[in-house]
Design brief:
By secondary structure, the chain is mainly alpha-helical. The protein has one domain (about 30-320, about 350-370): Rossmann fold, CATH 3.40.50. The chain has 15 helices and 5 strands. α5 packs across α6, α5 crosses α7 (about 200-210) and α10 packs across α13 (about 320-330). The protein is globular, with a radius of gyration of 20 Å. The two termini are about 20 Å apart.
Protein backbone atom coordinates (compact mmCIF):
# COMPACT_ATOMS: atom_id res chain seq x y z
CA UNK A 1 0.00 0.00 0.00
CA UNK A 2 1.13 3.52 -0.77
CA UNK A 3 2.38 5.36 2.31
CA UNK A 4 0.73 8.61 3.40
CA UNK A 5 2.93 11.52 2.41
CA UNK A 6 5.38 12.67 5.07
CA UNK A 7 8.38 14.98 5.05
CA UNK A 8 11.21 15.15 7.59
CA UNK A 9 10.96 17.97 10.14
CA UNK A 10 14.72 18.57 10.03
CA UNK A 11 15.54 18.04 6.34
CA UNK A 12 13.35 17.94 3.23
CA UNK A 13 13.73 14.21 2.61
CA UNK A 14 10.29 12.67 2.23
CA UNK A 15 8.38 9.51 1.36
CA UNK A 16 9.50 9.68 -2.26
CA UNK A 17 12.18 7.51 -0.65
CA UNK A 18 9.95 4.50 0.08
CA UNK A 19 12.35 3.23 2.74
CA UNK A 20 12.65 6.41 4.77
CA UNK A 21 12.00 5.94 8.51
CA UNK A 22 10.54 8.59 10.82
CA UNK A 23 10.63 8.73 14.61
CA UNK A 24 7.68 9.78 16.74
CA UNK A 25 8.65 13.45 16.29
CA UNK A 26 8.63 13.25 12.49
CA UNK A 27 12.41 13.30 12.17
CA UNK A 28 13.88 11.01 9.54
CA UNK A 29 16.69 8.48 9.72
CA UNK A 30 18.74 10.76 7.44
CA UNK A 31 18.97 13.31 10.23
CA UNK A 32 19.70 10.72 12.90
CA UNK A 33 22.34 9.03 10.76
CA UNK A 34 24.08 12.37 10.23
CA UNK A 35 24.03 13.19 13.95
CA UNK A 36 25.00 9.72 15.19
CA UNK A 37 27.31 8.30 12.51
CA UNK A 38 28.74 11.07 10.34
CA UNK A 39 29.22 14.08 12.59
CA UNK A 40 31.09 12.29 15.44
CA UNK A 41 33.56 10.81 12.93
CA UNK A 42 34.09 13.80 10.66
CA UNK A 43 37.09 16.02 11.40
CA UNK A 44 37.91 19.15 9.39
CA UNK A 45 39.99 20.80 12.11
CA UNK A 46 43.63 20.15 12.99
CA UNK A 47 42.88 16.44 13.31
CA UNK A 48 41.67 16.30 9.72
CA UNK A 49 44.60 18.40 8.51
CA UNK A 50 47.08 16.12 10.24
CA UNK A 51 45.51 13.06 8.66
CA UNK A 52 45.45 14.76 5.24
CA UNK A 53 49.14 15.62 5.40
CA UNK A 54 50.05 12.11 6.53
CA UNK A 55 48.24 10.80 3.47
CA UNK A 56 50.04 13.39 1.31
CA UNK A 57 53.45 12.30 2.56
CA UNK A 58 52.64 8.68 1.84
CA UNK A 59 51.49 9.53 -1.67
CA UNK A 60 54.64 11.58 -2.30
CA UNK A 61 56.89 8.81 -1.03
CA UNK A 62 55.31 6.12 -3.17
CA UNK A 63 55.18 8.44 -6.19
CA UNK A 64 58.90 9.27 -6.34
CA UNK A 65 60.33 8.78 -9.79
CA UNK A 66 56.91 8.74 -11.45
CA UNK A 67 55.35 11.39 -13.65
CA UNK A 68 52.30 11.52 -11.38
CA UNK A 69 51.68 10.23 -7.89
CA UNK A 70 47.87 10.10 -8.08
CA UNK A 71 44.88 10.75 -10.33
CA UNK A 72 41.79 12.97 -10.00
CA UNK A 73 38.67 12.72 -12.14
CA UNK A 74 37.82 16.28 -13.19
CA UNK A 75 34.36 17.23 -14.47
CA UNK A 76 34.60 21.00 -14.16
CA UNK A 77 32.04 20.94 -11.34
CA UNK A 78 32.73 22.21 -7.84
CA UNK A 79 33.60 19.02 -5.94
CA UNK A 80 36.22 17.71 -8.37
CA UNK A 81 37.61 21.21 -9.02
CA UNK A 82 38.12 21.93 -5.33
CA UNK A 83 39.68 18.49 -4.90
CA UNK A 84 42.27 19.39 -7.54
CA UNK A 85 42.99 22.64 -5.68
CA UNK A 86 43.39 20.87 -2.32
CA UNK A 87 45.67 18.23 -3.85
CA UNK A 88 48.06 20.73 -5.42
CA UNK A 89 47.95 23.71 -3.11
CA UNK A 90 47.42 22.10 0.30
CA UNK A 91 48.68 18.53 0.00
CA UNK A 92 51.52 19.44 -2.36
CA UNK A 93 51.14 16.30 -4.47
CA UNK A 94 51.32 15.79 -8.25
CA UNK A 95 47.98 14.57 -9.59
CA UNK A 96 47.13 13.78 -13.18
CA UNK A 97 43.79 15.39 -13.96
CA UNK A 98 41.63 12.92 -15.87
CA UNK A 99 38.52 13.93 -17.78
CA UNK A 100 36.02 11.68 -19.53
CA UNK A 101 34.24 13.37 -22.42
CA UNK A 102 30.93 11.55 -22.89
CA UNK A 103 29.56 14.13 -25.29
CA UNK A 104 27.52 16.26 -22.87
CA UNK A 105 29.93 18.85 -21.48
CA UNK A 106 28.65 22.39 -21.08
CA UNK A 107 30.88 25.20 -22.34
CA UNK A 108 31.25 26.41 -18.76
CA UNK A 109 32.55 23.01 -17.63
CA UNK A 110 35.11 22.94 -20.45
CA UNK A 111 36.20 26.46 -19.55
CA UNK A 112 36.56 25.57 -15.88
CA UNK A 113 38.73 22.56 -16.69
CA UNK A 114 41.02 24.67 -18.87
CA UNK A 115 41.31 27.39 -16.21
CA UNK A 116 42.17 24.92 -13.45
CA UNK A 117 44.78 23.07 -15.48
CA UNK A 118 46.48 26.33 -16.43
CA UNK A 119 46.15 27.93 -13.00
CA UNK A 120 47.39 24.90 -11.08
CA UNK A 121 50.01 23.92 -13.64
CA UNK A 122 48.67 20.38 -13.87
CA UNK A 123 48.47 18.06 -16.85
CA UNK A 124 45.14 16.91 -18.21
CA UNK A 125 44.33 13.64 -19.96
CA UNK A 126 40.96 13.45 -21.71
CA UNK A 127 39.39 10.17 -22.70
CA UNK A 128 36.74 10.63 -25.37
CA UNK A 129 34.02 7.99 -25.30
CA UNK A 130 32.93 6.55 -28.64
CA UNK A 131 29.81 8.59 -29.30
CA UNK A 132 27.92 5.93 -31.25
CA UNK A 133 28.32 3.48 -28.36
CA UNK A 134 27.49 6.15 -25.80
CA UNK A 135 24.38 7.14 -27.72
CA UNK A 136 23.28 3.53 -28.17
CA UNK A 137 23.56 2.78 -24.44
CA UNK A 138 21.73 5.97 -23.49
CA UNK A 139 18.92 5.17 -25.92
CA UNK A 140 18.68 1.69 -24.40
CA UNK A 141 18.36 3.13 -20.89
CA UNK A 142 15.59 5.48 -21.98
CA UNK A 143 13.70 2.59 -23.59
CA UNK A 144 14.15 0.47 -20.44
CA UNK A 145 11.97 2.97 -18.51
CA UNK A 146 14.12 2.70 -15.35
CA UNK A 147 14.73 5.92 -13.37
CA UNK A 148 18.52 5.67 -13.81
CA UNK A 149 18.94 7.17 -17.28
CA UNK A 150 22.10 8.94 -16.14
CA UNK A 151 23.81 5.58 -15.50
CA UNK A 152 25.60 5.43 -18.90
CA UNK A 153 27.40 8.70 -18.14
CA UNK A 154 28.27 7.65 -14.60
CA UNK A 155 29.55 4.31 -15.88
CA UNK A 156 31.73 6.04 -18.47
CA UNK A 157 33.18 8.51 -15.95
CA UNK A 158 33.86 5.98 -13.22
CA UNK A 159 35.02 3.04 -15.33
CA UNK A 160 37.10 5.16 -17.69
CA UNK A 161 39.17 6.67 -14.90
CA UNK A 162 39.65 3.55 -12.81
CA UNK A 163 40.57 1.41 -15.78
CA UNK A 164 43.10 4.06 -16.85
CA UNK A 165 44.56 4.22 -13.34
CA UNK A 166 44.92 0.45 -13.21
CA UNK A 167 46.48 0.24 -16.67
CA UNK A 168 49.08 2.87 -15.77
CA UNK A 169 49.66 1.51 -12.26
CA UNK A 170 48.44 4.66 -10.50
CA UNK A 171 47.72 3.52 -6.96
CA UNK A 172 46.02 6.57 -5.45
CA UNK A 173 42.69 7.95 -6.69
CA UNK A 174 41.43 11.21 -5.19
CA UNK A 175 37.70 11.86 -5.45
CA UNK A 176 35.41 14.79 -4.71
CA UNK A 177 33.02 12.64 -2.66
CA UNK A 178 32.31 14.44 0.60
CA UNK A 179 30.00 14.82 3.57
CA UNK A 180 29.61 18.60 3.32
CA UNK A 181 27.40 18.57 0.22
CA UNK A 182 26.57 14.85 0.01
CA UNK A 183 25.88 13.55 3.52
CA UNK A 184 22.36 12.58 2.41
CA UNK A 185 22.91 9.75 -0.03
CA UNK A 186 20.32 9.59 -2.80
CA UNK A 187 18.14 6.49 -2.28
CA UNK A 188 18.21 3.66 -4.85
CA UNK A 189 14.51 4.17 -5.59
CA UNK A 190 15.46 7.42 -7.32
CA UNK A 191 17.75 5.56 -9.70
CA UNK A 192 20.88 5.96 -7.59
CA UNK A 193 21.98 2.35 -8.06
CA UNK A 194 24.85 1.64 -5.62
CA UNK A 195 27.69 0.88 -8.02
CA UNK A 196 27.91 -0.58 -11.50
CA UNK A 197 26.07 -3.86 -11.89
CA UNK A 198 27.22 -5.51 -15.13
CA UNK A 199 24.26 -7.89 -15.05
CA UNK A 200 21.85 -4.96 -15.14
CA UNK A 201 23.80 -3.00 -17.78
CA UNK A 202 24.12 -6.01 -20.07
CA UNK A 203 20.48 -7.02 -19.76
CA UNK A 204 19.20 -3.52 -20.55
CA UNK A 205 21.58 -3.23 -23.47
CA UNK A 206 20.81 -6.71 -24.78
CA UNK A 207 17.09 -5.91 -24.68
CA UNK A 208 17.16 -2.42 -26.19
CA UNK A 209 20.61 -1.80 -27.72
CA UNK A 210 21.58 -2.23 -31.36
CA UNK A 211 25.32 -2.86 -31.40
CA UNK A 212 28.08 -4.35 -29.29
CA UNK A 213 29.83 -2.08 -26.82
CA UNK A 214 33.32 -2.76 -28.13
CA UNK A 215 35.18 0.12 -26.47
CA UNK A 216 32.75 1.46 -23.88
CA UNK A 217 34.29 1.03 -20.38
CA UNK A 218 32.23 -0.92 -17.83
CA UNK A 219 33.83 -1.72 -14.47
CA UNK A 220 31.63 -3.91 -12.29
CA UNK A 221 31.31 -2.87 -8.65
CA UNK A 222 32.74 -6.21 -7.47
CA UNK A 223 35.77 -5.85 -9.77
CA UNK A 224 36.34 -2.40 -8.31
CA UNK A 225 35.87 -3.38 -4.66
CA UNK A 226 37.65 -6.72 -4.74
CA UNK A 227 40.06 -6.87 -7.68
CA UNK A 228 41.16 -3.24 -7.80
CA UNK A 229 41.19 -2.37 -4.11
CA UNK A 230 41.88 -5.67 -2.32
CA UNK A 231 44.02 -7.52 -4.86
CA UNK A 232 45.73 -4.65 -6.68
CA UNK A 233 45.87 -2.34 -3.63
CA UNK A 234 44.30 0.75 -5.18
CA UNK A 235 43.53 3.42 -2.57
CA UNK A 236 40.61 5.85 -2.79
CA UNK A 237 41.14 9.14 -0.93
CA UNK A 238 38.43 11.71 -0.10
CA UNK A 239 40.37 14.86 0.84
CA UNK A 240 37.30 17.10 1.06
CA UNK A 241 36.28 15.23 4.21
CA UNK A 242 39.50 16.35 5.89
CA UNK A 243 39.41 20.09 5.20
CA UNK A 244 36.83 22.83 5.80
CA UNK A 245 34.63 22.62 2.70
CA UNK A 246 31.83 25.16 2.47
CA UNK A 247 30.18 25.33 -0.95
CA UNK A 248 30.00 29.12 -1.30
CA UNK A 249 33.49 29.68 0.09
CA UNK A 250 34.95 27.11 -2.30
CA UNK A 251 33.16 28.71 -5.26
CA UNK A 252 34.46 32.15 -4.29
CA UNK A 253 38.02 30.88 -3.83
CA UNK A 254 38.13 29.11 -7.20
CA UNK A 255 36.70 32.19 -8.92
CA UNK A 256 39.17 34.58 -7.30
CA UNK A 257 42.20 32.42 -8.08
CA UNK A 258 41.34 30.96 -11.48
CA UNK A 259 38.24 32.66 -12.85
CA UNK A 260 36.33 29.40 -12.29
CA UNK A 261 32.59 29.88 -12.85
CA UNK A 262 29.94 28.39 -10.57
CA UNK A 263 26.86 26.51 -11.72
CA UNK A 264 23.23 27.12 -10.79
CA UNK A 265 23.03 23.71 -9.16
CA UNK A 266 24.96 20.51 -8.48
CA UNK A 267 25.70 18.39 -11.58
CA UNK A 268 24.88 21.18 -14.02
CA UNK A 269 28.31 20.80 -15.59
CA UNK A 270 26.75 18.04 -17.73
CA UNK A 271 23.97 19.13 -20.05
CA UNK A 272 22.45 15.65 -19.95
CA UNK A 273 22.53 15.35 -16.15
CA UNK A 274 20.99 18.79 -15.86
CA UNK A 275 18.12 17.66 -18.12
CA UNK A 276 17.78 14.31 -16.39
CA UNK A 277 17.68 15.69 -12.84
CA UNK A 278 15.68 18.86 -13.57
CA UNK A 279 13.14 17.43 -16.01
CA UNK A 280 13.05 13.69 -16.63
CA UNK A 281 13.37 12.33 -13.10
CA UNK A 282 10.98 14.71 -11.28
CA UNK A 283 8.36 14.96 -14.01
CA UNK A 284 8.26 11.29 -15.03
CA UNK A 285 9.00 9.55 -11.72
CA UNK A 286 8.33 12.21 -9.08
CA UNK A 287 11.88 12.03 -7.70
CA UNK A 288 13.77 15.22 -6.86
CA UNK A 289 17.49 14.71 -6.31
CA UNK A 290 17.57 18.27 -5.07
CA UNK A 291 15.92 16.92 -1.90
CA UNK A 292 19.11 15.04 -1.06
CA UNK A 293 21.35 17.90 -2.22
CA UNK A 294 19.52 20.55 -0.21
CA UNK A 295 19.10 18.27 2.82
CA UNK A 296 22.86 17.78 2.89
CA UNK A 297 23.35 21.55 2.93
CA UNK A 298 20.71 21.92 5.66
CA UNK A 299 22.44 19.37 7.89
CA UNK A 300 25.85 20.98 7.39
CA UNK A 301 24.54 24.48 8.12
CA UNK A 302 24.87 25.89 4.59
CA UNK A 303 21.16 26.31 3.89
CA UNK A 304 18.08 26.79 6.02
CA UNK A 305 15.19 24.39 5.76
CA UNK A 306 12.87 27.27 4.81
CA UNK A 307 15.20 28.22 1.96
CA UNK A 308 15.21 24.63 0.74
CA UNK A 309 11.42 24.32 0.92
CA UNK A 310 11.01 27.53 -1.08
CA UNK A 311 13.57 26.60 -3.72
CA UNK A 312 12.27 23.08 -4.30
CA UNK A 313 8.72 24.40 -4.71
CA UNK A 314 9.61 25.41 -8.26
CA UNK A 315 11.76 23.90 -11.02
CA UNK A 316 15.44 24.82 -11.16
CA UNK A 317 15.02 25.80 -14.83
CA UNK A 318 12.06 27.56 -16.43
CA UNK A 319 9.61 25.63 -18.61
CA UNK A 320 10.82 27.14 -21.88
CA UNK A 321 14.41 26.12 -21.13
CA UNK A 322 13.30 22.63 -20.13
CA UNK A 323 11.34 22.26 -23.38
CA UNK A 324 14.38 23.34 -25.38
CA UNK A 325 16.53 20.83 -23.48
CA UNK A 326 13.99 18.06 -24.17
CA UNK A 327 14.22 18.75 -27.90
CA UNK A 328 18.02 19.00 -27.75
CA UNK A 329 18.42 15.65 -25.96
CA UNK A 330 15.96 13.96 -28.33
CA UNK A 331 17.79 15.20 -31.42
CA UNK A 332 21.25 14.42 -30.06
CA UNK A 333 20.21 10.84 -29.28
CA UNK A 334 18.49 10.42 -32.67
CA UNK A 335 15.00 10.23 -31.20
CA UNK A 336 12.15 12.04 -32.88
CA UNK A 337 10.77 14.48 -30.32
CA UNK A 338 7.42 12.71 -30.28
CA UNK A 339 9.22 9.36 -29.88
CA UNK A 340 10.99 10.54 -26.73
CA UNK A 341 7.71 12.03 -25.54
CA UNK A 342 6.07 8.62 -25.97
CA UNK A 343 8.82 7.02 -23.86
CA UNK A 344 8.33 9.76 -21.27
CA UNK A 345 4.63 8.91 -21.07
CA UNK A 346 5.25 5.16 -20.98
CA UNK A 347 5.03 2.87 -17.93
CA UNK A 348 7.75 3.33 -15.33
CA UNK A 349 9.94 0.37 -14.41
CA UNK A 350 12.76 -0.36 -11.96
CA UNK A 351 15.94 -2.42 -11.92
CA UNK A 352 13.80 -5.31 -10.63
CA UNK A 353 12.37 -5.69 -14.13
CA UNK A 354 15.81 -6.71 -15.42
CA UNK A 355 18.50 -9.19 -14.54
CA UNK A 356 20.64 -7.88 -11.69
CA UNK A 357 22.71 -8.86 -8.69
CA UNK A 358 21.38 -6.22 -6.37
CA UNK A 359 21.29 -8.60 -3.41
CA UNK A 360 25.06 -8.99 -3.65
CA UNK A 361 25.62 -5.25 -4.02
CA UNK A 362 23.39 -4.65 -0.98
CA UNK A 363 25.41 -7.18 0.99
CA UNK A 364 28.56 -5.26 0.13
CA UNK A 365 26.90 -2.02 1.22
CA UNK A 366 25.94 -3.60 4.53
CA UNK A 367 29.55 -4.62 5.13
CA UNK A 368 30.76 -1.11 4.30
CA UNK A 369 28.40 0.38 6.91
CA UNK A 370 29.00 -2.38 9.42
CA UNK A 371 32.77 -1.91 9.42
CA UNK A 372 32.78 1.88 9.23
CA UNK A 373 33.89 2.41 5.63
CA UNK A 374 30.61 4.14 4.73
CA UNK A 375 28.89 6.48 7.17
CA UNK A 376 26.01 7.54 4.95
CA UNK A 377 22.80 5.53 4.82
CA UNK A 378 23.03 2.58 2.43
CA UNK A 379 19.58 1.34 1.47
Amino acid sequence: MKRPYQICNKTIMDTSDPDIVFDESGVSDYYHNYQNNILPNWYTDERGYKQLMEIAEKIKKEGRGKDFDCIIGLSGGLDSSFTAYVAKEIMGIRPLLFHVDAGWNTDKAVGNIEKLCKGLGLELFTEVINWEEMKDLQRAYFKSQVPGQDAPQDIAFFSGMYKFARKHKIKYVLTGANYSTECCKEPPAWGAYPGIDKFLVKDIYKTFGNNKLRTFPVLDILEYKVLYQVIFGMKVIKPLNLVPYIKKDAEDLLFSKFGWEKFQHKHHESRFTRFYEDFWLPKKFGFEKRRAHFSSLILTGQMTRDEAVHRISKPELDEKTLKNEFDYVANKLDFAVDELQKIFEGPNKTFKDYRNKRWLVNLGGWFLMRFGNEKRLMR
